[in-house]
Amino acid sequence: MVHFTCDLCKCSIDAKRDLRYVVKMEVYAAMDNTAEDELDDDRDYLLEIQDILQRMEDGQCDQISDDVYHAMRFDLCTECRQRFVKQPLGREAVPQLDFSQN
Fold first, then answer.
1. Which structural domain, as residue segments, surrounds residue 40?
2. Which of 5, 56, 71, 83 sits in a 20 to 30 Å window from 21, CA-based?
């Protein structure tokens, strides 16, 4: 039987009794064009990035460093999933001020 552990709190997740949540994250370099670049170059950078990501998923491209692309996968228990959804970046939310409508 496969054993699962929550990657945050390290508690055991019983596959028959408990829900297990999978979080997948991708961090990749943004390719922003300047107005000058757009006039001089008709390259479709978004398509090029999509091609690179597709080759990575297919296991064809081992030459991309973590500076350009990094994928992560985590298993979470129910409690940690709730905390993650509320604060996905792991920081306190900025308090919202409630002003009167006068």
1. 4-86
2. 56
| Burial of 49 from C-beta contacts in 10 A (0-12 / 13-18 / 19+) | middle
pTM over 0.85: no
Contacts of 49 (CB under 8 A, 6+ apart): 28, 31
Distance of CA 99 to the CA centre of its chain: 34
15-34 pLDDT tens trace = 899 999 999 999 988 877 65
**Rounded Cα gap, residues 75 and 24, in angstroms:** 9
Rg (CA), the chain: 21
Q: How far apart are CA 81 and CA 60, in angstroms?
A: 32
* Structural domain includes residue 15: yes
